[in-house]
Amino acid sequence: MDLLRQLRHVRRHWWVALVTVMVALGASAFLTVRAQPRYEASVTFFVTTPNQGVTDAYQGGLFLQQRVKSYADLLTSDRLAQTVVAENPVGRTAEEVQRSVSTSTEAGTVLLRAAVTDTDQARALKVTETLAAKFVELVQTVETPPEGKAPIKIEIVSGPRVSSSPVSPQPVRNLTLGGLIGLVLGVGLAILRGVADVRLRDAAGLQRTTGSPLLGEIPFETGARSAPLIVGEAANSSRAEAIRKLRTNLRFVDVHEPARVIAVTSALQGEGKTTLSCNLAIALAEAGWRVLLVDADLRRPKVDDYLGIDAGVGLTDVLVGDVQVGDVVQRWGDKSLLVLPSGSAPPNPSELLGSKAMADLLLALRESADIVIIDTAPLLAVTDGVVVAVQADGALLVSQQGRTSRTQVAAASRALHAVSVRLLGCVLNMAKMPKAEAYQYEAYRVVATTELAEAPAERPKTARHSDSGEPNAVSDHTQELTRLPR
Questions:
Q1: Helix axis angle, 14-34 to 171-196, nearest 10°
Q2: What single DSSP character describes residue 457?
Q3: What mean pLDDT do residues 179-202 have?
Q4: Which of these, 18, 331, 387, lies nearest to 179 by C-alpha position?
Q5: What is the mean pLDDT of residues 250-261?
Q6: Would you call the peptide bond into 169 cis, given omega within 30 degrees of 0 as the criterion?
Q7: Which of 2, 48, 261, 446 could be joined to 392 by an S-S link, Cβ 3.0–4.6 Å?
Q8: Are the CB atoms for 44 and 131 separated by under 8 Å?
Q9: Distance between CA 398 and CA 262 in Å, rounded?
Q10: Are strands 291-295 and 394-400 parallel, antiparallel or unpaired?
Q11: What are phi and psi of 425, to 5 degrees?
Q12: Residue 54: what pLDDT?
């Protein structure tokens, strides 16, 4: 995994890192407040051998530097701690005194520093004073110089003294350390969450998973739930513009073998395939195409709800032979768009959609319209969608960003390829549009609207009839749509 992908994971799941940092800072602050203040008392010793010449002083200095290391261990020994407790009981055991003592030396010197930390300021100083005195006595006792050599001398050159303010806890250090630890953990968790997240997050992932061209990205809009169709005010939205781009891309998928009967499906329910079918049909009709929208989702039909038409009689009734298709097709709005609703709910949708009657109906509809859009059932739920897609010229796979997993999309794509369905392309629905792109579209739309408002009052004629009184081309198309087989 490259660095850019990891950075994308962190940017996508930034809130994970932020929450982790806040938790780490909160934990650090809590522990800092709850911690009992500790004071430090210190003393510094100087180790030397008097009455030495220059040569002896150099050799003695090297010898004393080695001895200082041993004296550091002696300061933290059991023997000295027991001696301190026996000499001056301070309510601490020898083990507690031993754990409270720390030592340090400076490289190249014969200075030795001892520090005692305690929650009680006076007790820390008292233990340090006793420790210093007993340490000097112990060294003089155990160190017997060779004959003719000067004895080792230990002097206290600093202290004992105790700090006036606590040495711990340190709020600034604790909060800084906690924040850094939280940041590292947060970034790691964000990357881990991104790696473990198998849902579709971008159009490139959808294209790689399906192996088909990306024909459109439909942006998410909060108002789409209450106004799903691209009519009225919604016709000027970025979502409507994305549908028009899909319309254009769909026309040029294969100019040598254009698809006239298109099945629109998805892997799961609720990914917006029905809304996309309706809006695509509206966009094609706006461009002057003769469009027929068929609701072939016989289990959960929704086209009638979106378009506000009567679905009591429709596709099911035509397939069983109760009515003729010309009697149930309904015109929608003032556009060259006809709609064939689902009709009565059948007990066997798959068998009905895969029947010869369905194949004959699609053949007749192909000759009566420029483009037939079929809204089908989800592929992974039932087999209805595959049955319809086999009879169409191609299928359009719709996936919702952040909801469908790559595994589910791949399974849907395999279901289509398994029966040799021509997958025209894929559409990423409810995609998050970058703010810069949304701003550019809105700015351009506002400028264009302003220019139209400032244009001269004379407008081009868009009536249904020409100046000579004869019907225009759009009216001719509308009339031809009504001549369906009866």
A1: 150
A2: S
A3: 86
A4: 18
A5: 84
A6: yes
A7: 261
A8: no
A9: 13
A10: unpaired
A11: 170, -175
A12: 40
Q: Return the bridge partners of 360, or none.
A: none
Listing DSSP states for 234-267 in one string gives GGGSHHHHHHHHHHHHHHTS-SSS--SEEEEEES
Q: Nearest to residue 272, comparing CAs of 434, 427, 433?
A: 427
Mark out the alpha helices in 268-392 (DSSP H runs): 273-286, 303-307, 315-319, 325-328, 349-353, 356-368, 384-391
CB distance 59 to 68 below 8 Å:
no
DSSP state of 224: G
Q: Where are the domains of the chain?
A: 3-35+170-196, 39-162, 203-452+467-481
Whether residue 89 has a cis bond before it, omega within 30° of 0: no
Helix-strand-coil split of the chain, %, nearest 5: 50, 15, 35
Burial class for 412, CB neighbours closer than 10 Å (0-12, 13-18, 19+): buried
Strand order in the sheet with 39-48: 101-105, 111-118, 39-48, 153-162
Residue 437: what residue type?
A: E
Residue 467 — very low, low, confident or very high, per pLDDT cuts 50/70/90? very low
CA dist., res. 374 & res. 389, Å (int) = 9
- How many other CB atoms are there within 10 angstroms of residue 195's CB atom? 12
pLDDT given for residue 337 in this prediction: 92
Local structure of residue 152 (DSSP, 8 states): P
Collapse the DSSP code of 293 into the 3-class scheme (helix H, G, I; strand E, B; otherwise coil) and give the result: strand
In the prediction, which pLDDT does 465 show? 35
Mean pLDDT of 95-102: 90
51 φ/ψ angles, rounded to the nearest 5 degrees: 60, 55
What 3-state DSSP class applies to 226?
coil
pLDDT above 80 for 90 = no
Partners of residue 429 on adjacent β-strands = 400
Residue with tokens 């359009």: 396
Is a pLDDT exceeding 90 seen at residue 256? no
Q: Determine whether 145 is exposed, middle or buried from the number of CB atoms within 10 Å of its CB (0-12, 13-18, 19+).
A: exposed
- pLDDT confidence of residue 449: 47
Q: Which one is predicted more confidently, 93 or 476?
A: 93
- Options 1.10.10.60, 3.40.50.300, 1.10.10.10, 2.170.120.12; CATH for 203-452+467-481 is 3.40.50.300
CATH architecture of 39-162: 2-Layer Sandwich (3.30)
